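Why do we bother with holo predictions? Because pocket geometry can differ from the apo form. Keep that in mind while you read this record for nickel (II) ion.
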Amino acid sequence: MAILKILTYPDPKLKKKSSPVEKIDKEIEKLIDDMTETMYDAPGVGLAAPQVGVNLRVIVVDISAREQDSPGLIELINPEIISSEGVMVGEEGCLSIPGFSSEVKRKAKVKVKGLNRKGHFIELEGTGLLARAFQHEIDHIDGILYIDRLSRLKRELLKKKIVKALASEA
Ligand code: NI
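The structure, written out:
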């Protein structure tokens, strides 16, 4: 396994819609393993393939570090939200926008379907942080960042701060 480089905003690869995985082969399995190690190393509760420069619909989620009530590591290929209900607002960050976070409105409960690495169809339900992580990571494979979910005013303000921080780093 290897720790991969996490792309950061405003890398154009983060804005691209990712393609479905058509065949689960050794390469996809290695991608999942490397993404998992990269997520734990960061550390984060989720990671999507475009964040490591691969525009394929693959995500990994593990909220164990933040919540006791956790299903453990979840690997999902071609994930889709099939139903959702309620609304919640909570603080959200992203490994691709390090050092920042913002309150983001999300669905309170989501049902997700996808394939596991064996190609078996799986369905999962999440509330709270797990629901937030599913929505955040599935957004990533559609080229959407959490800052795109903010009101225009909040988004512009946060973007200015990020650009400023990037400029001072350079
Ligand atoms: Ni993210």
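The pocket of nickel (II) ion is lined by residues 94-96, 136, 140 (CB under 6 Å).
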